């Protein structure tokens, strides 16, 4: 069974990559989203947009080099190809400017993670860079509301991973029945990390028709770090997300290359063992929804 992964950091990882064309092909990837992650610790406030654009150029070069098929919409996805979609992680990339948001859309960006680990012009995260439980009650700013409305009009997915609970509520109010996503987030009820989603947030995303991409970072999954413990935790998070949000809410958002090697799922080549575990636990029909159908439904809504 082929799968779709809504988030990886291969564009900005300087080390040995987990996401390589060989690993994606071995794993059976249909579509990989590649995040142009703008690290606000490493660039000046006025250099964030330029950094995003240079990562967009890196994406184009990578697609050519690795033989990925760059796609901007659902109807461009080819079953026999390794499809790649460009996203942005860190809404500070648009530097508080709707023109820059539109420029990124024209450049091919089809999803943007509104916040990363620090507050920006759009809104606030749930946890600081080190995962301390500094839950903030700040949601979207006035500019953030305008930006999300514009994303809705353009057909760029709003991604609330990293966002505060309040931010998820604010986005849900704007989106109503237009899908929005948490591209790489797990369930707080299963493991109490502030980067994980509360049940209320899971329901809000599900109510919009959106999806939540299961994240493979051991730090968000479980204190039990063995391969078996991580496998059990991935299944437990999946089960909870489905219990709370329904079978249409779950997708995959590995976070490969943004996270240390998970002992159970070291890289995309390991995906078949996880897909098999999903089939065993949930049956083939639901496993297929998790691996591809739910994400495809959200992408098709962008057209
Ligand atoms: Zn992230």
What does this structure look like?
With about 300 residues, this protein is an alpha/beta fold. The protein has one domain: Metal-dependent hydrolases (TIM Barrel, Alpha-Beta Barrel), CATH 3.20.20. The protein has ten helices and eight strands. The chain has helices spanning about 20-25, 50-65, 100-105, 140-155, 165-175, 200-205, 220, 225-245, 270-280, 285-300; strands spanning about 5, 30-35, 70, 85-90, 110-115, 155-160, 210-215, 250. About 50% of the residues are buried. Zinc ion binds near residues 89 and 162.
Strand pairing plus helix content: what structural class?
alpha/beta
| Small-molecule components bound | zinc ion
Task: Note poorly predicted spans.
Answer: none
Number of domain modules: 1
CATH homology-level superfamily: Metal-dependent hydrolases
Give the name of the CATH architecture: Alpha-Beta Barrel
Beta-strand content estimate: 5-15%
Largest sheet: 6 strands, parallel
Write the H/E string, N to C: EHEHEEHEHEHHEHHEHH
- Helix percentage range: 25-40%
Give the C-alpha Rg: 17 Å
Which class in CATH terms? Alpha Beta
What is the 3D shape? globular
- Give the termini distance in whole angstroms: 25 Å
Number of helices: 10
Overall average residue pLDDT:
95
* CATH topology assignment: TIM Barrel
List its salient traits.
two-stranded parallel ribbon; 303 residues; 10 helices; alpha/beta; 6-stranded parallel beta sheet; TIM Barrel
Short recap of the structure:
This protein has about 300 residues and is of the alpha/beta class. It has 10 helices and 8 strands.
């Amino acid at each position: 069974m082929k799968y779709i992964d809504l988030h990886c950091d291969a564009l900005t990882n300087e080390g040995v990559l987990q996401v390589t064309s060989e690993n994606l092909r071995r794993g059976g990837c249909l579509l990989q989203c590649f995040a142009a992650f703008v690290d606000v610790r490493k660039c000046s406030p006025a250099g964030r947009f330029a950094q995003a654009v240079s990562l967009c150029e890196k994406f184009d070069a990578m697609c050519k080099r690795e033989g990925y098929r760059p796609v901007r919409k659902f109807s461009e996805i080819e079953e026999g190809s390794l499809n790649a979609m460009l996203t942005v992680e860190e809404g500070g990339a648009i530097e508080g400017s709707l023109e820059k948001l539109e420029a990124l859309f024209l450049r091919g960006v089809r999803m943007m993670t509104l916040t990363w680990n620090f507050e920006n012009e759009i809104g606030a995260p749930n946890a600081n860079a080190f995962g301390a439980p500094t839950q903030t009650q700040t949601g979207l700013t006035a500019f953030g509301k305008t930006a999300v409305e514009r994303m809705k009009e353009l057909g760029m997915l709003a991604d609330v991973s990293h966002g505060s609970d309040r931010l998820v509520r604010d986005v849900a109010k704007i989106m109503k029945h237009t899908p929005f996503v948490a591209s790489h987030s797990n369930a707080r009820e299963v493991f109490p990390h502030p980067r994980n989603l509360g049940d209320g947030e899971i329901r809000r995303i599900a109510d919009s028709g959106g999806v939540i991409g299961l994240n493979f970072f051991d730090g968000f999954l479980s204190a039990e770090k063995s391969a078996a413990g991580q496998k059990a935790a991935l299944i437990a998070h999946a089960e909870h997300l489905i219990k709370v949000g329904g079978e249409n809410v779950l997708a995959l958002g590995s976070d490969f290359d943004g996270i240390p090697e998970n002992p159970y799922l070291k890289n995309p080549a390991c995906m078949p063992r996880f897909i098999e575990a999903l089939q065993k636990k949930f049956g083939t029909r639901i496993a297929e929804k998790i691996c591809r159908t739910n994400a495809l439904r959200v992408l098709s809504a962008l057209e």
